Amino acid sequence: MSETTVVRASSLPARLTRLYGGLALYGLGIGLQVESGLGNDPWDVFHQGVGIRVGVSIGTVIIGVGALVMLLWIPLKQRPGLGTISNVVFLGLFADGAIFLLPTPAHLAFQALYVALGVVAIALATVLYIGAGLGPGPRDGIMTGLVRLGLSVRLGRFLIEVTVLAAGWLLGGTVGVGTLVFALAIGPLTQLFTRWFPLAPAGPR
């Protein structure tokens, strides 16, 4: 990568584009998985389950849970950034917008395509918005906070996602083959996209 490319990648406008483009793409990925009907990622199983019980949209729950999760940052001594606040405010809006605009597929082949596109979108979106260097999302911050307390990344992520998945399933969220595909594919895909979209240097938070 040339020096000019590095400078452009780390400039504030480029980082803001990565942040908000990533959040919009993440919302699209959520919408694709939800509309597929084949199973959501663990957090969105939980968000959907809460939404069903409370009678609100999944995007509303994403915003509310994001705000509540940030409270857990206090004992974990995590500091939010612009990316963190933007995640709380915009991700749910983008997800609701995608669910509203996307047609619900009636054929299994199109449902499977929605799952595949959704997982790819979420993996790329994660690299974009976290790679902007403007602060992790509230749910990501819980994992990094647990790592600071001594847990491994793998164990911290496992404990969090198993807990929210089980809770979401009990509340009525959709668990299925799409959930399994997400669990198996999200790590390798995220690693792949990290090679194509290098992380921007951390800046003002």
Spatial extent as radius of gyration: 17 Å
Distance N to C terminus: 26 Å
Helical content stands at over 70%
The main pleated sheet reads as: none
Key phrases:
205 residues
Task: Tell me what you see in this structure.
The chain is mostly helical. Helix 2 packs parallel to helix 6, helix 7 packs across helix 10 and helix 8 packs across helix 9. The radius of gyration is 17 Å and the shape is globular.
Helices and strands in order, then pairings?
Blueprint: H1 3-10, H2 12-36, H3 42-54, H4 58-71, H5 73-76, H6 82-101, H7 108-131, H8 138-148, H9 153-171, H10 177-196
Helix pairs in contact: 2-6, 2-7, 3-4, 3-9, 4-6, 4-8, 7-10, 8-9
Task: Give a quick summary of the entry.
The chain has 205 residues and is an all-alpha fold. The protein is 77% helix and 0% strand.
